[in-house]
Amino acid sequence: MKRKVVALFLTACMAVSITACGQADDTNKDTAANNDAAGDDAAGDDSAAGDDAAGDDAAGDDNAAGDDAAGGMLTVGFSQVGAESDWRTANSASMKETFSEANGYNLIFDDAQQKQENQIAAIRNFIQQEVDYIVLAPVTETGWDTVLQEAYDAGIPVIIVDRMVNISNEELYTAWVGSNFQLEGEKACAWLDAYAKATGKEGEKLNIIDIQGTIGASAQIGRTAGLEAAIEAHDNWTLLEAQSGEFTQAKGQEVMESLLKQYDDIDVVYCENDNEAFGAIDAIEQAGKTVGKEIGKDILVMSFDSTNAGLTDVLNGKIICNTECNPLHGPRVEEIIKKLEAGEEVEKQQFVEEEIFAGTEDVTSIKVVGADGTETEYPVTTVTQEVIDGRAY
Ligand code: GYE
């Protein structure tokens, strides 16, 4: 069984922890890796503006009058970013599984192929169809004011999931549920700091590469900010370069290949998701270098998400530290919708609890200092096959 992170992160707003309950997801890096690299989506549900090619929408069109009275079905329009990563595949599966017909929903699933313009078109289509709820997983934070105002004016509640929106009027969405991405970055860097100390390499110079996520996405903004703060705090840590790998394996590999030609003294590659890490590892090995655990000798690969394939690479010694990002948002969004249906108040923002995994036993826990100066301790789980088998994604 997996250990739950005990620490609860509190922001000025509030924090709610929700226990993940999920479904098995057996995607692996080979399937997810190549999906969005060329902008084409293997999942097949790449319909523009909500014509639910995934086949999981029985009632999208016959709900024009918002008639959830008919059979008590609720119509939910979900604008998904794309299918760029294993995380995203698990997230889509969670939403589809939760918002099934058997559970009383008509889900209109729209895959935007990582393009905001497709998401805006999908939301307009949902408004036209008079769906009961709009769920948006925004590709980037900015650019949502106009379309969310349109949804608001149409009286359709909008629930934001995963990444955040940055809008002038917070009233334009009803609730958000997702991860604290900056905390994820801070945890990863606290681990690296503790690992250097634990292995007697505290004062050694560390040359770091940041393979960033999609620029402007909350997951990129937070994880990059976590690293930048740690670099500021360590005189011996140098950021050689930060470049986007777009959260895909293909782009992660491409970026790493070019950086390996530029730098021959890379110590750490901080990949902002698992799929980028898979690509970076391939590039490093193809260049005749070794990924591993020894500072000063190997290239240490760090990652985020902790998907099944990501943790398998931790177990294999390829990724040294993997900070979890939990994609199982379906049940969380459903809980929000159920409360709204019952006329109950919902939290405006809900952060999910997450773990941190490592491929060594050198660091058993890390401490992160919050903005208010309080220190929180998080346990580090050493990855075993049992740990991997006990996880849902
Ligand atoms: O880490 C990455 C995905 O927004 C949290 O998006 C999500 C990120 C996740 O493509 O794998």
| Annotation, overall tally of beta strands | 14
- The helix fraction, in percent, is 25-40%
Strand content: 15-25%
Termini separation (Å)?
14 Å
Unreliable stretches? 1-67
Strand order of the largest sheet: 7-6-8-9-10-12-14-13
Bound molecules: beta-D-fucofuranose
Alpha-carbon Rg, integer: 21 Å
SSE pattern: HEHEHEHEEHEHEHEHEHEHEEEEH
Largest sheet: 8 strands, mixed
Integer average pLDDT: 87
How does the helix and strand content classify structurally?
Answer: alpha/beta
Shape: elongated
Number of helices: 11
Summarize the structure.
With 393 residues, the protein is an alpha/beta fold. The protein has 11 helices and 14 strands. Helix 2 runs parallel beside helix 10, helix 3 packs parallel to helix 4 and helix 5 runs parallel beside helix 6.
Write the layout of secondary structure elements.
Blueprint: H1 29-33, E1 74-80, H2 86-98, E2 105-111, H3 116-128, E3 133-136, H4 145-153, E4 158-161, E5 175-178, H5 181-198, E6 206-212, H6 218-233, E7 237-244, H7 249-262, E8 268-271, H8 274-286, E9 300-305, H9 308-315, E10 321-324, H10 330-341, E11 349-351, E12 356-358, E13 365-369, E14 375-382, H11 385-389
Parallel strand pairs: 1-2, 1-3, 3-4, 4-5, 5-11, 6-7, 6-8, 8-9, 9-10, 12-14
Antiparallel strand pairs: 10-12, 13-14
Helix pairs in contact: 2-10, 3-4, 5-6, 7-8
Q: Overview of this structure, please?
A:
The chain has 393 residues and is of the alpha/beta class. It is built from 11 helices and 14 strands. The strands form 2 sheets. Strands 7-6-8-9-10-12-14-13 form an 8-stranded mixed sheet, with helices on both faces. Strands 2-1-3-4-5-11 form a 6-stranded parallel sheet, sandwiched between helices. Strand 1 (74-80), helix 2 (86-98) and strand 2 (105-111) form a beta-alpha-beta unit. Helix 2 (86-98) packs parallel to helix 10 (330-341), helix 5 packs parallel to helix 6 (218-233) and helix 7 (249-262) crosses helix 8 (274-286). The longest helix is centred in the middle third of the chain and has 18 residues, at 181-198.
